[in-house]
Amino acid sequence: MGGRVSRVFRNFNLENRVHREIGKPKPSAAPRHPSTKDFVDKMSKHSEINETIHQKDEPLAILLRTVYVNSVDPAQQDLKQKDVPALMEEERRLPKSRLQGNPSGFSDVQNVPKGKLSIVEALTVLNNYKHSPKIWTAEKIAQEYCLDLKHTKALLEFFIPFEVKIIPPKSEDKKRIKAT
After folding, report:
1. Considering only 12-16, 31-35, 46-50, 138-142, which range has the smallest mean pLDDT?
2. Are the beta carbons of 156 and 163 closer than 8 angstroms?
3. Of 25, 36, 112, 142, which one's alpha carbon is 20 to 30 angstroms from that of 12?
């Protein structure tokens, strides 16, 4: 219902309003800057320059029509074949430690790139360093796992494995829920 009412007001006396807008004088161009006035005066005197600027150059248009560009995307197989040797060149090693079974969703890693650690190896390294830092030095860990010494020192400095401490209750006479 509201659309009909608004349409009536929108179309009311439409033709007269259109004729009034068309009959208005067109707005004049903005005044030019005084510095360009001399340039425009000089250009208007040289009408042959204006003609050559606005004239269509037929020989150039014909040459432009003969230009044809044909582009083709490179084949995807070519790109894949170039990347495969780079992956194969990366040296790999067997992991030093593995988890028995498949607890908590860790996948069993078969080989590890040199210079990197698997999650299990990283936790083992951190735990060994935590329990005996004199035996497991940064240099020994870097040599054992084929790591960069700088990265090994950063690993040992900034990563600390969690330590779970079970604190026994102070008194035995508190109520507890017994397992059934």
Report:
1. 46-50
2. no
3. 25
Residue whose token pair is 């102070």? 170
Q: What is the C-alpha separation between 2 and 5, in angstroms, rounded?
A: 5
Instruction: Establish how many alpha carbons lie within 13 A of residue 97's alpha carbon, considering only the half-sphere containing its beta carbon.
Output: 15
Q: What is the pTM of this model?
A: 0.40
Q: Quick check: helix, strand or coil at residue 51?
A: helix
How distant is the alpha carbon of residue 80 from its chain centre?
22
- 80-94 residue pLDDT tens: 555 555 555 567 776
Sole residue written with tokens 């208007």: 44
Instruction: Label residue 120 exposed, middle or buried (CB < 10 Å: 0-12, 13-18, 19+).
Output: middle
CA distance linking residue 146 with residue 140, whole number of Å: 10
In sequence order, the β-bridge partners of residue 112 are 93
d(CA 100, CA 139): 28
Question: For 53, how many CA atoms within 13 A lie in the half-sphere containing its CB?
Answer: 7
Cβ–Cβ < 8 Å for 10, 18: no
Residues facing 92 on adjacent strands: 113
The answer to whether the beta carbons of residues 90 and 83 sit under 8 Å apart is no
